[in-house]
Amino acid sequence: MAKTSHRPGPLKQQNKGHKTGRHRSKGKIDVELKGRVSAKVISKKWKRELSKAGRRNKALQLRKKKREDLLNQKRIGTQEAPPNLVMVLPLHGTIDVDRILGCLRAADSDAVEYPSNNSNLLHICLPRFKRRFTIVVPSTNLSAILDTAKAADSLLCLVDPNECWDEFGDLCLSCLFAQALPSVTFAAQGMSDVPIKKRHEAKKTLQKQIERRFPNGKLYTVDTEQESILLLRHLAEQKLNTIKWRDLRPHILADDVTFEPNNNENGKGTLKVTGFLRGSCLSVNGLIHLPGFGDFQMNRIEAPSDPCPLNPRNIRRNVKKTEDGMAIDDDENETMEEGSKLLEVVDPHSQESLQSEAVPDPMEGEQTWPTEEELAEAEAALREEKEERIVKRVPKGTSEYQATWIIESEGEDEEEDDDEESDEDEEYVDAMLPEAEDVESIPEEPSEADDMEFETVSISGGSKENYDVHFDEEEEKKLLEKYREERSHAMFPDEIDTPMHMSARTRFARYRGLKSFRTSPWDPKENLPLDYARIFQFESFDRTKKRVLSTRNEGIAEVGNYITIHIADVPRSAYDDYDPSHPLVVFGLLQHEQKMSVLHFTLKRHPDFNEPIKSKERLVFQVGYRRFSACPIFSQHTSGNKHKYERFFPKDSVTVASVFAPITFPPATVLAFKELPDGSHQLVATGTMLGVNPDRIVVKRVVLSGHPFKIINRQAVVRYMFFTREDILWFKPVELRTKWGRRGHIKEPLGTHGHMKCIFDGKMKSQDCIMMNLYKRMYPKWTYDAVGVRSLHITASSQHIPDDMESL
Question: Which of 2, 65, 380, 706 could hold 718 in an S-S bridge, CB 3.0 to 4.6 Å?
C-alpha cells in the first residue's frame, strides 16, 4: 500500500503568533535578507571596529602600559631626569622668604647643598627621598615670575597666616592661572605665634581661602623640623602637572651665562648658557629664542660635569687638582676629568634658517622680459599721457581704469573718529595735485571733548592739595572720548552717518553688499594687501603640525643633561641686561616657528579691567614662550567662513584677536597686557592660541540708516540715507532691511536730493527705521615688535614685598 501522510483537519489547534510590535522579529529579518550582509556590517569590518570584549581588552592593555611607564619613570627618572625645579613665590609682603628657606635647608641633616654660579639658584640633594631640587626665588617683577614659572616643575606659594595673599599676590595667581600652572603647594610660617585656642580656626580660615581658587590645595606649615620634612616629602613625591606647550619644546633655565665677543667688533658675540635641559631633546641645528631679543642660531653644544649629582658618593666637597690638570675626590679617590665634553657641532647644510619673512618677487606674473624698443615706446607713451592726464581725487588703491569711471565730487575727504577708519577707509590719494602737501595743515574742528569742562572732586581720607599733582587733562579727555564711542557703539552697533559733502559711492568705494552674511561667497585671496606677500602659509596646517611634532625629539642632547649651548651672533645688550634675579629661560624652536604669519587668539577680558579697548590699539602679548607687542584687530568667535569685525573688545564674551607674528604651534596660552602712560603694564585679557590661518575672513560692517517720509502700504519714500541721485542708483542692487524685520529694495530715486521710493515685503510702520548693510574685509597691520618687551613693569609697592630680600 502506498504511504499516506497525515493531514491536519479543520479542528487542528492554532497557537497565537508572537507579537513583535511595530518592528520585525529577528527571524523575519533573516528570512527577508536571505543571507545578504548589511552595509553596516561591511563598514564596521572595513573600519576594523572592535567588539565590546575587544574594546575592554584594549582599554586594559593601555591602562597596563601607562602603569608600567609610570613605574619606569619613577624607577629610572630619578637618575636621568633634571632636578625638580621649585619656584618660591611669596604672595604677601610680610613674608620672610629667607627664614622659610632656612628651615627647609636645615630640616634634613643628610641634605647636601651644591653651589651655583647664579646667586638666586640653590641645588639641594636629599638622599632620604632620592631626589634633588633646584630652588629659585625670582624678583618681585611680574615678568620675572612668569618667566620662571614657564620652566618650574613645582610652585611653592608662601601665604601669610592672617591675610593669605595681598593684591599683588592675587594678580600673580591670575596671570599664572592663564599661563598654565605647575604643581602648586601652599606653605605658611608663623602659626606657632597664633594663640593655641585660635590656631585651629586660623588654619581652617586659610584652608578655605585657598580652596576657593585651588579646590585640591593643601596647606603646610613650616614652624618645626618635622613639618619641614613633611613639606619636602610632599614636594618630592607629588604628581607633577603636565604643561603641554612647554614640554613640546626644549628649554633651559640658565644656571650660568657668559659672553664671548666676536673678533670683528660689530657688537655681537657668542652667548654661552649653561643649565639642565628640560622638555624634549635639543639639536644644535635648530634655533633658540631669547626673550626680548628674538631668534638665534647655535654653534655647538657641550656637556660639562653635573653640578648636582644624585649619588652621594659623587659629591665633590673636597676636590683637589693634580699637576696634570685632573680633579681628585678625597672621599673616594676617584679621578674625574676637568672641563666639558663636546656633544654636537652645527652642520651648515642642515642648520635651520633665520629667515622670518618671504621675499616677494616684483616680477612674478610677468611672462616675457620687455625689449629695449618696447621700453622706449612705453616711456614715450607715458610722456604723452602725462601731458593729457586729468587730475582726480580717488580712493586709495583705485586703478587708473577705475578712476576714469569715478565722477569728481566737490567735497573733501572725511575722516571718522575711529583710528581704523583713518588707516584704510579715509586714506584718499590725490593723484597729482600740488596742494596735497597742505592737507595736513588744515585745522581740525574742535571735538565735543575739547569743549568739556572738568571739575576736581575731593576724596575723603586723602590729601586734597596733592590730588591734582598727577592729573593729566589730555589723557582724561582721550579716555572720555573713548568711553563715549564705546557707549555709542553699544547703543547703535555699526551705524554711521552718510557724509553730505561727498558722494557715498566714493566714501564707501571698498564696501559691498551681501545677500546673506552666512552663505554669500567671499574669495579669501581677493585683493590682498602687500603685507600678505611677506608671510608664510601652510597647505594643511594640521598635517604640518603633526609632522613637526613627530620629529621634535631628533637631537643628541637628551632631557636631563647638564649642557652649555653656544648661541651665535647675539648682541652685547643681551648679556648686559641679564640680571640673576630675573632668571633667563631660553626655549628651542620647533620647525617653522621663526616664520611670520597671521595668528589668531581667543581672548576673554580680565574682570579687573574695565576701560574700553579699541581695535588696532597696541597691546603686549605673551604667547607661550614669546612676548611681543602688536596692534590686533578683533572679530567674533563664530564657526562660519566669515567673522564680523569688532570695533571694541567686548566685555562679556570671547573674541578673536588677529596679528602678524611668528608661527606658534598650538596649544599655547595667551596673556594680553596694556601699557599705561607711566610705562607700567596692566593685565587686559587671557586666552589661548586659536590657530595660524591667513585665510580667515574678518568682515567689517557699516549700517546706513534712513527714515520713512511717506508710507503707502508696502511702499515708502525714504530720505536721509543718501543725498544725491547718483548714489541711489549706485546702491540700488543692495538689499534693505528695517529694525522691525522687514526686507525690501530700492525701486527708483525721486528728485535729485536723495529721496527714493522703496518697496518692502510687508506693511511699513511710521516709527520704523530703514537700514542698509555694507561690508568690507579687514586686515591686521604689520605692527609686530619683539625688541624691548622682555620685562613687564608691574612691581609691588614697598609695603607689600620688601626690596631688601637677601639672595640665597
Answer: 706
Q: How many residues does the chain have?
A: 808
Mean pLDDT to the nearest integer, 39-58? 74
CATH number, domain of 585, equals 2.40.30
CA-CA distance, 387 to 369, in Å (whole number)? 28
Nearest-angstrom CA–CA distance, 705 and 506: 18
Q: What is residue 357's three-state secondary structure?
A: coil
Whether residues 121 and 260 share a domain: the answer is no
Instruction: Choose the weakest-confidence range: 98-102, 114-118, 344-348.
Output: 114-118
The amino acid present at 227, given as its one-letter code, is: E
Looking at 195, 218, 244, which one is the last position of a domain? 244
Strands (E), 368-412: 393-395
Strands 112-114 and 268-278: unpaired
| 139 and 225 fall within a common domain | yes
3-state secondary structure of 701: strand
The span from the CA of 168 to the CA of 157, in Å, is: 13
What CATH number did the domain enclosing 159 receive?
3.40.50.300
CA pair distance 676, 681, nearest whole angstrom: 6
Q: Indicate whether 344 and 225 sit together in one domain.
A: no
Name which of 16-25, 42-51, 85-94 the model is least confident about: 42-51
| Greatest extent of the chain over all pairs of C-alpha atoms, in Å | 137
pLDDT of residue 21: 83
Calpha distance 182→179 (Å, rounded): 10
Same domain, residue pair 113 and 224: yes
| Dihedral of the alpha carbons of 563, 567, 571, 575, in degrees to the nearest 10 | 0
Cβ atoms 412, 501 nearer than 8 A: yes
* Radius of gyration, alpha carbons of the chain: 36
Confidence of residue 191 (pLDDT cuts 50, 70, 90): confident
In a domain, 255, yes or no: yes
Strand, coil or helix: 296: strand
8 A C-beta contact, residue 756 and residue 718: yes
Which burial class, exposed, middle or buried, applies to 134 when counting CB atoms under 10 A from its CB (0-12, 13-18, 19+)? buried
Type and span of the H or E element at 33: helix 26-33
The pairing of beta strand 743-750 with beta strand 219-221: unpaired
Mean pLDDT within 477-506: 75
345 and 233 assigned to the same domain: no
CA dihedral 538, 540, 546, 548 (to 10 degrees): -20
Higher-pLDDT residue of 410, 36:
36
Q: Residue 199 belongs to what domain range?
A: 83-244
* Residue 140 phi, psi dihedral angles, 5° rounding: -80, 5
Contact 293, 570 (CB under 8 A): yes
Handedness of CA 259, 262, 267, 270 (dihedral sign): negative
Collapsed DSSP state (helix, strand, coil) of residue 64: helix
Report yes or no: 769 and 622 within 8 Å, Cβ to Cβ. no
Q: How confident is the model at residue 589 (pLDDT cuts 50, 70, 90)?
A: very high
755 is a domain residue: no
pLDDT, residue 740, reads 87
For residue 28, what are the contacts with CB-CB under 8 A and spacing of at least 6? 20
How far is Cα 237 from Cα 750, in angstroms, rounded to an integer? Answer: 83
pLDDT of residue 150 exceeding 70, the answer is yes
Q: In terms of domains, do 233 and 343 share one? A: no
Tell whether 688 is covered by a domain: no
More confident residue, 753 or 249: 249
- Residue 260 β-bridge partners: 270
Determine, yes or no, domain membership for 334.
Answer: yes
C-alpha cell at 204: 581652617
Is 565 in contact with 282 (CB distance < 8 Å)? Answer: yes
Both 126 and 185 in one domain: the answer is: yes
Q: Which residues pair with 394 in a beta bridge?
A: 429
Same domain for 273 and 216, yes or no, is no
Task: Please tell me the predicted confidence (pLDDT) of residue 444.
Answer: 44
Domain end point (choices 244, 266, 298): 244
